């Protein structure tokens, strides 16, 4: 019998479900966010329901608490001053800063337990105060509790204020793979407080500037020129120069996310990950003794030199980029670049394979065709990577 005679369907029916969801969140630049007379936080919390008392659960980076032990009391005083519109469901909860909080899933579970215990619902707030690692972990908790509760980020490092804090990614590490467990979930709001940067050690201040150099190199030659002209001021952390650098860097990251055509990274291109394939691996190899920004600076130098060696970027631009990074305080060599893995290969090259696995399918790495212009390549010649590593080592010896 034919299919028609038996009554069987002769074709598959497909019903396409299509809808779009607009995403919108403020990125606020202020100073003294927890001063009772500063309206930035309370205005952010009440922008949808101005007359409601909003319940808040706050997590604070313990590295920040070591430098600012009075911060929990300041947060509590702020909540009391605005008690008709916000309340803390518990005293601010400390969580480990740095990669430790991302390397152990137990911290995610503990924070989710806090969300459950205190009855945080989809109209309450989870507020994270800290560096990028803390924001990543707490963001994951917020995104996966009740399928998403409102999350306010208050970044406290240069790196998180100008890059990760204003983006849409959350995640923690698993089996040594960076951000293997994660989500794309925009925050409810981001509040950048310049005053909180005063607690940072020098090393962290320097590390955060790597992402400004990165985004300038791939998107804004004028900003790169500004960084060069203001390198002296940035090297001593002059407040006005730091404020502009952070704000412009954040703007460029936000513009890429909003207008780059792939905010949730469903494709293979990752322009904002310029320099990161090596950086992520260097962090892992060094057990995170290298800060993220320090590893990114090395990755930028490596890929800029590779761009010259492969004929994409004019000769001499690699020296120009490295000079700026060194002027800002970065060291562009680390012995981990020479580490050999168990199979007898250069360990950092495993970063390329992991990058491809993370993307899925085709390898896509951003290189430079000019200062301010990134270009995607789909093959990396390992011999040229080795040449670039040799070049960086020789620079150290000069």
TrEMBL record:
Chain ranges of the 3-dehydroquinate synthase N-terminal domain: 95-206
Cofactor field: NAD(+)
InterPro entries tied to this protein: Dehydroquinate_synthase, DHQS/DOIS_N, DHQS_C
UniProtKB keywords: Amino-acid biosynthesis, Aromatic amino acid biosynthesis, Lyase, NAD
GO biological-process terms attached to the record: amino acid biosynthetic process; aromatic amino acid family biosynthetic process
Domain 3-dehydroquinate synthase C-terminal: 208-335
Record-level Gene Ontology MF annotations: 3-dehydroquinate synthase activity
Keyword Lyase listed: yes
Name of the protein in question: 3-dehydroquinate synthase
């Amino acid at each position: 019998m034919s299919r028609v005679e038996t009554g069987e369907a002769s074709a598959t029916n497909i019903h396409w479900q299509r809808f779009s969801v607009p995403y919108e969140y403020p990125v606020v630049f202020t100073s003294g966010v927890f001063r009772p007379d500063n309206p930035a936080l309370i205005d952010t919390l009440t922008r949808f329901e101005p007359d409601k008392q909003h319940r808040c659960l706050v997590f604070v980076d313990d590295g920040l608490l070591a430098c600012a032990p009075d911060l929990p009391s300041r947060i509590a005083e702020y909540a009391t001053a605005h008690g008709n519109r916000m309340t803390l469901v518990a005293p601010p909860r400390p969580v480990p800063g740095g990669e430790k909080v991302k390397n152990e899933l137990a911290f995610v579970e503990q924070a989710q337990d806090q969300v459950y215990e205190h009855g945080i619902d989809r109209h309450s707030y989870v507020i994270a105060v800290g560096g990028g690692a803390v924001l990543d972990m707490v963001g994951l908790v917020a995104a996966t509790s009740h399928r998403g509760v409102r999350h306010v980020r208050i970044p406290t490092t240069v790196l998180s204020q100008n890059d990760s804090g204003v983006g849409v990614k959350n995640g923690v590490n698993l089996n040594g793979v960076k951000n293997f467990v994660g989500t794309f979930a925009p925050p409810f709001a981001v509040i950048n407080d310049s005053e909180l940067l005063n607690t940072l050690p020098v090393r962290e201040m320097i590390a955060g500037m790597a992402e400004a150099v990165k985004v300038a190199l791939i998107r804004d030659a004028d900003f790169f020129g500004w960084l060069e002209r203001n390198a002296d001021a940035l090297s001593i952390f002059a407040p006005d120069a730091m404020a502009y650098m952070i704000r412009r860097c954040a703007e460029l990251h936000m513009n890429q996310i909003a207008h780059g055509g792939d905010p949730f990274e469903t494709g293979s291109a990752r322009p904002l990950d310029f320099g990161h394939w090596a950086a992520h691996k260097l962090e892992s190899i060094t057990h995170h003794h290298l800060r993220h920004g320090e590893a990114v600076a090395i990755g930028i130098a490596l890929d800029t030199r590779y761009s010259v060696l492969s004929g994409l970027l004019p000769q001499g631009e690699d020296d120009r980029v490295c000079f700026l990074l060194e002027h800002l305080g970065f060291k562009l060599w680390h012995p981990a670049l020479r580490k050999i893995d168990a199979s007898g290969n250069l360990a950092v090259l495993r970063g390329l394979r992991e990058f491809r696995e993370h993307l899925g399918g085709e390898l896509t790495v951003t290189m430079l065709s000019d200062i301010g212009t990134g270009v995607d390549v789909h093959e990396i010649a390992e011999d040229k990577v080795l040449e670039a590593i040799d070049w960086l080592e020789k620079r150290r010896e000069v």
